[in-house]
Amino acid sequence: MEQIFITDVAPRDGLQNQQIEVSTEAKLELIARLVSAGVNSVETTSFVSPKAVPQMADAGELVPQVNARWPQLRSSVLVPNLKGLERAHASGAKEIAVVLSATETMNRKNINMGLAEALEVSEKTLAAAHALGLKTRAYVAVAFECPFEGETSLDEVLRLAARMHAAGAGEIVIADTIGAAAPAQVKERMTVIRDAVPLSQLAIHLHDTRGMGVANAWSALEVGVRRFDASAGGIGGCPFAPGAAGNLATEDLVLMARQSGFETGISLNGLLDAVAFAEAQLQRPLGGRSGAWLRRT
Ligand code: HMG
Ligand code: MG
49-77 b/e with 16+ CB inside 10 Å = b? Predict the structure, then answer.
């Protein structure tokens, strides 16, 4: 069976926008359950301004504990600038992700910089991370539609993806921030982008606002993408992108992949255990589209 690679972003994208405060211990327990389920790549946290995202204020305490407990785990952290990189490195982070959006307004709302500055800061942050020996990812957010500017230009998305590749990002992550894409657009855009970024370094990060997350993942699979972000229980959403619902649920992606002949290395029962824990923490029902069926008795 052919392998696909999943990074579970629940601890970062999933928890960055929750009303209920989740303790560092509970974040560690969520990661423990993801690891038990067979997840081998997690986006653990973000080193952003605690004023902007108080939910991630414990990043500096979380990372050393994750490194000590799971030295083999691929654990990345989101950093928006050099200050974030400095804090991430001081905590012992081994991999960072920069975040660049394909429109002027989304960059301003998210990281308080225009597009040109965000591009420059992302390139500088990647270069500094490489000099420190860290691995890197680069998000290209609002790669399909922007909540402020509407449909984004494919040329712009392609240009930014190529710049991130040229800057040495180990993985370029094309993100549907508000879950607005449909399978035909995923096919069209990923087919163009795969000419600029080798498939071995190309990932897709889907949100599931319109119920098309799994169909979009299938579309990406068909054009050869094998690297996916997803979030256990489907939790997630950028606080600065109005209308962003949760991420594509890891359990939906794993189920679809399994039924379609792809191996993920992830146990569905193990994932359900992680989802049940997240539900207890967040005090509301969670789960992807397949949740009710997966949990049938
Ligand atoms: P700013 O206010 O413009 O920053 O914020 P500044 O450089 O003017 O500094 C202001 C203060 O913040 C200073 O402190 C800095 O030291 C501090 P003060 O002097 O006032 O005490 N500061 C920081 N503190 C901690 N960590 C840092 C940092 N940088 C500066 N890294 C900034 C700019 C980028 C910091 C802010 O806008 C921010 O933190 N934004 C957070 C954005 C965010 O977390 N968004 C969600 C993640 S992205 C996402 O979800 C999309 C994704 O999932 C993909 C997709 O779905 O599309 C990845
Ligand atoms: Mg996201």
Answer: beeebebbbbbeebbebbbeebeebbbbb
